[in-house]
Every structure is written in C-alpha cells, then in structure tokens.
C-alpha cells in the first residue's frame, strides 16, 4: 500500500511555524476566511486512471490545501500515494504517477475538520477486509462520528487515524451481510451528518451521498469511463462530460457489469449546503443546475438592492468577493475597481512569526491599489465575515491608502452558529456576529457603514421567493441555527473531544 519513502516522511508538518505565534499569524492572514472542506474524485476503467485523478484533484485544490492522496488498483494490487501539501507538490511528477498503475483510482484533497493534519489522516483511507481491499475518500463530517468511534473502540476496534472517515471502514468490516454493497449500505445506515463518498474495491467504484444532499457529488463521463467528483470544474479540466448530480441518499456502483443504483433511504427534502454557492465551489462550477458565478453575482445585485449608499467605486476583497462585487456594480451602476491586489504566492513556510511580521501579515496577502481608491468613497464587498480580524485590517489599509469613506458589505447573512458538517468554523463565542450587534461590529471593523445580505434576499438571489421556515431549500444553519440532521456528538452527556488522542511520530 505505501511506498517506502513515505516511511521517512514526518507525520507532523514541521515546516510551518508552531505555537501561539503561528496561530496568531494564521488568524491575521485568514481571520475572516471560511476554511475549505475536502474534494473527492474517482474514475473507473481508464488506462490513465491515476493521471486523470491527479488532474481532477488539481481542479479541486481550492477545497483543501493541506494534503492530497490517490489510491489505484491494477487488477491484482492496490497502490497508494498520500502526502502532505498541495497536489502539484507530489502528483505532478511522472515517477509518482508510475507508482499508481491500474484502470481504477480514487483521490482526495483535504482540509482537516476532524483529526489533525498528519500523514495517517490523509485520505483515501484504506483497509483490508475479508472480501478484499477498500479505499474511501470522504467530503463532509459525521455528526455521530465520535460516538460511533467510542462504541467501536469499546468493542475492540483499533483506530489508526483520528479522522471520522475511519469509522466508515470499521462499520463496513463489522457488517455480517454477504455482498459488499449490502455491507456498505449497512455502514451508511449507521452514520449521520454530511458525506459525499467515493470508494474503491478490487472490482467496483462506489459513490454515495447523504440523504439530505448536504455535500455535492456529480457524475461525469470520459470516453465511456464513469467519473465521480465533488464539482463540475474537475470534469472540465480533463474534457469529461457532465452527466448528472448524484441524488441525495443515492448509492451508485460501477463494475464490469455496468452501473447499479441503490436508494436505501426514505426520501427526504434535499438541503444542499448554501456555502457551496457563497464560498466553497469554484466560480466556474455548476452546482445543482446553478452557475456558481451567476449566483454570486446575484448575491451582489441583491446586496445593492438592500443596502446601497452613495459611493464612487465598488471594490472586491479578492478573490471570493469578486463575483458579488461585479453583480453589485452592475446593479448599482457604480464602477468596479480592483482596489485591492492579492499576492497569490504568500506561503507560511518562510514566514518567521515575529511581532513585526504579524502586524503586517495582511499586507503580505493583500495590497492597496492606491490609484483606484485615493480620495474616493469606496464600498468593499466580501463573501462572509467570521472573526473580523482581516476585515478590520483591510478597512485600515483602505484608509491608509487615502480612501475618503469605507463602507463594508457582506454577500451573505451574519454567521451566528457553528457548523458540524465539514466547515471549520469557530464555536459561537468566536463568531463576531454571534457576540456583537451590527453597530458594534461596524465600530470594531472601523467602517463607515456595515451591512449583510438578508436571509430572504439570499434565497431570492437563488431564484426562490424567500426562505420558508417550514421547508428551507438549503442547509443554512450557520445563519439560522436550523440544523438539517441530528447532532448526536453534541448532545452526549459524556464529553466528546474534538481532537482525539494522537501519537506524534518522527523518523
């Protein structure tokens, strides 16, 4: 399964600054950023399965930048390459792809939501079961994963990672059904929360989506070979054809006999995650039949309808605020200007966590374009606000560059509640909007005015008449507190640690 040179790779990412100084620096650079989830990719029956999977993961890199992995099967053996870092750090090398032979492969890009960023948590996870090998790549988060894990450990299971995905492997292994797909479905019946799964056996490629459809999963076709992946942009990069979305609660299987579909759950009203449109998905992706780019423009136009003030220019906070700023500008008639230039090459490995660097951290990532904003009334457009630290620094940067007025607009409602489905948000006490009034937030950020997109306005921008509290069309719990599934781990009387025990290894 594992190439020998991986044994020498540290489980801990020793290149990054560590300790309180590193945490403060990270907050400075990414304080208002929603952390990405994960991306999955799988292909069946193609002679260049691993190379195509690597390209697909490259297109999904925005969904997770901490680690990447691919598992392939060549007809007799499974092969695995799982590494910390970006896809291009490992999978752009020919010798790595050559170590992944076979016509079937699954891949994963990761941002950790449960379990630290260590090599043993990098997916796809693999286990040898009595029926053969099983590799699983998972986007999402199980809301009963810790509870199930505790039960499995009590019954004798030995866990090798600290990620909730490993629970799925143990549940499949524990099932007493005779056929693999029945065992797989048995496992799905025990888990709750959000998941889009792409799994590989020695005969099958399997995709599964949670009954509410919280996490996305699409089906594509490349020269007759089926592909399962998180977003349509991963199909575009390899020239594959989009076929359809995998339906909520659907389990789809590809093998030598073709395609087989299972629907083991009672029908439920879909509740896809609204943050796929606000932040996570790439603008060129189509999610549930909607162009992400056009939706984000519509958010901006609706924001202009709700909270416009007289200004001279509309300035996006790059990069996620750009489409909404375009929509705001088009609707309001106020010129769009790139008043902030983003440095795409800022890394953490070379940054020394000194006080001077921490104070200038946001300027390393964003720079003011003085020519576009000096002496002008500007309106800043961003996608969302989490802690407010970066927003405060950007407002100050605009004033330092000569802006006469700085108004701040968010193309989503205030984030009031934590997420348990794969978005790494702080607890409620760490969410600025949950602990401060609008006026208090405005004062903290230092803007002349502050406004968020309304919840009904967000729904109208999605083509809905507004939010129906009895039947919301999306998972919007971060704004409303209306969680779409049970939260078993959160309701346990026995304390459930977010980070489980961990053995730090060194070579």
UniProtKB/TrEMBL annotation:
Residues 38-257 form the Glutamine amidotransferase type-2 domain. Its EC number is 2.4.2.14. Mg(2+) binds at residues 320, 382-383. Residues 487-499 have a biased composition (Polar residues). The keyword Glycosyltransferase applies. Its cofactor is Mg(2+). Residues 485-507 are annotated as: Disordered. The active site is at residue 38. One of its GO terms (biological process) is purine nucleobase biosynthetic process. Binds 1 Mg(2+) ion per subunit. Pathway: Purine metabolism; IMP biosynthesis via de novo pathway; N(1)-(5-phospho-D-ribosyl)glycinamide from 5-phospho-alpha-D-ribose 1-diphosphate: step 1/2. It catalyses: 5-phospho-beta-D-ribosylamine + L-glutamate + diphosphate = 5-phospho-alpha-D-ribose 1-diphosphate + L-glutamine + H2O. It comes from the Bacteria. Keywords: Glutamine amidotransferase, Glycosyltransferase, Magnesium, Metal-binding, Purine biosynthesis, Transferase. Catalyzes the formation of phosphoribosylamine from phosphoribosylpyrophosphate (PRPP) and glutamine. NCBIfam families: purF. This is Amidophosphoribosyltransferase. It comes from Bradyrhizobium cosmicum. The gene is purF.
């Amino acid at each position: 399964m594992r190439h020998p040179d991986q044994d020498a790779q540290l489980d801990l990412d020793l290149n990054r600054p560590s300790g309180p100084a590193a945490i403060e620096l990270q907050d400075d650079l990414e304080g208002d950023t929603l952390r990405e989830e994960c991306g999955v990719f799988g292909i069946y029956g193609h002679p260049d399965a691993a190379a195509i999977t690597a390209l697909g993961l490259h297109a999904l890199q925005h969904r997770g930048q901490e680690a990447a992995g691919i598992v392939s099967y060549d007809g007799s053996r499974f092969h695995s390459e799982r590494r910390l870092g970006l896809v291009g750090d490992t999978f752009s090398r020919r010798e790595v792809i050559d170590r992944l032979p076979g016509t079937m492969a699954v891949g994963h890009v990761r941002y950790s939501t449960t379990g630290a960023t260590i090599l043993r948590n990098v997916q796809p996870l693999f286990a040898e079961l009595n029926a053969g090998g099983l590799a699983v790549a998972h986007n999402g988060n199980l809301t009963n994963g810790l509870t199930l894990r505790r039960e499995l450990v009590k019954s004798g299971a030995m866990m090798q990672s600290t990620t909730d995905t490993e629970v799925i492997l143990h549940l499949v292994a524990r099932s007493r059904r005779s056929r693999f797909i029945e065992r797989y479905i048995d496992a799905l019946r025990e888990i709750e929360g959000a998941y889009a799964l792409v799994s590989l056996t020695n005969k099958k490629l399997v995709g599964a989506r949670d009954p509410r459809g919280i996490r996305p999963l699409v089906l594509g076709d490349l020269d007759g070979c089926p592909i399962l992946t998180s977003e349509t942009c991963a199909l575009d990069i390899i020239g594959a054809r989009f076929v359809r979305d995998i339906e909520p609660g659907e389990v789809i299987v590809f093998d030598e006999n073709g395609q087989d579909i299972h629907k083991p759950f009672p029908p439920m009203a879909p509740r896809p995650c609204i943050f796929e449109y606000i932040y996570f998905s790439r603008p060129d992706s189509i999610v549930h039949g909607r162009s992400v780019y056009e939706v984000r423009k519509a958010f901006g136009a609706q924001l202009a309808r709700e909270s416009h003030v007289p200004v001279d220019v509309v300035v996006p906070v790059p990069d996620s605020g750009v489409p909404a700023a375009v929509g705001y500008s088009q609707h309001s008639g106020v010129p769009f200007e790139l008043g902030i230039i983003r440095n795409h090459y800022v890394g953490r490995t070379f940054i020394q966590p000194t006080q001077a660097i921490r104070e200038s951290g946001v300027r390393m990532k964003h720079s003011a374009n003085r020519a576009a904003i000096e002496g002008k009334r500007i309106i800043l457009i961003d996608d969302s606000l989490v802690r407010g630290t970066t927003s405060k620094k950007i407002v100050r940067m605009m004033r330092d560059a000569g802006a006469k007025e700085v108004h701040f607009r968010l193309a989503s409602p205030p984030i009031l509640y934590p997420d348990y489905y794969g978005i790494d948000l702080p607890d409620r006490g760490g969410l600025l909007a949950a602990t401060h009034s609008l006026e208090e937030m405005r004062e903290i950020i230092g803007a002349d005015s502050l406004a968020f997109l309304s919840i009904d306005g967000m729904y109208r921008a999605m083509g809905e008449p507004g939010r129906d509290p009895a039947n919301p069309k999306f998972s919007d719990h971060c704004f409303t507190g209306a969680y779409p599934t049970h939260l078993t781990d959160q309701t346990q009387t026995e304390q459930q640690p977010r980070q489980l025990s961990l053995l730090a290894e060194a070579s």
